[in-house]
TrEMBL record:
InterPro entries: His_Pase_superF_clade-1, His_PPase_superfam
Gene3D superfamilies named in the record: Phosphoglycerate mutase-like
Binding site for substrate: R79
Pfam families: His_Phos_1
Stated name of the protein: Phosphohistidine phosphatase SixA
Top-level lineage group: Bacteria
Length: 168
């Protein structure tokens, strides 16, 4: 079993209105190659074996704690979709507002507003699987690969309640 690491705020999931937002599991490198195409995983930076094992371990830990989700929203990038599927904690649905804007920060404000709206309009227990830049824009906090932040919507955005990190 991978190291659970220092962040282990499992109790934050019991807070009223708590949802999860996760940075995709370990996918070595930074950004995507210049020939990146959203519909072709061969052109993207993807999870490696450690990333797949990390996503599987995070899902197992969540299930062991009895934590499940009505829907898992994910960006359309292959590394986020694969992470969401390997978690095996709820049905996976693409949400374009969670797509990375690392290569074009001009869409940051619009995508962050759309993500806040997605959270606000969904009464279900949610998990979002996305990218570092999206999480930073939404929460004001950085995350490591595979880190899960437990957040709660507020009138001004979101409040970070805690985090979970299982190292690859």
């Amino acid at each position: 079993m991978p190291d659970v690491g220092q962040a282990n705020d499992w109790d934050a999931f019991s807070e009223p209105g708590a949802i999860a937002i996760m940075r995709h599991a370990l996918a070595p490198g930074i950004g995507d190659p210049p020939e990146f195409t959203i519909d072709d995983c061969d052109t993207q930076r993807n999870l490696d074996e450690r990333g797949r094992a990390q996503a599987t371990a995070i899902g197992a830990a969540l299930r062991e704690k009895g934590i499940s989700f009505d829907v898992v929203f994910t960006s359309q990038w292959c590394r986020t979709r694969e992470t969401a599927e390997l978690l095996e904690i709820g049905p996976v649905t693409a949400a374009p507002s969670l797509n990375s804007f690392f290569a074009d920060f001009s869409t940051q404000d619009q995508q962050t507003a759309e993500t806040n709206a997605l959270i606000a309009e969904t009464d279900d227990r949610l998990m979002l699987v996305t990218h570092q830049v999206n999480i930073s824009a939404l929460t004001g906090q950085g995350t490591r690969s595979g880190e899960v932040l437990i957040i709660r919507p507020t009138v001004n955005g979101v409040q970070v309640l805690g985090s979970i990190l299982i190292q690859p």
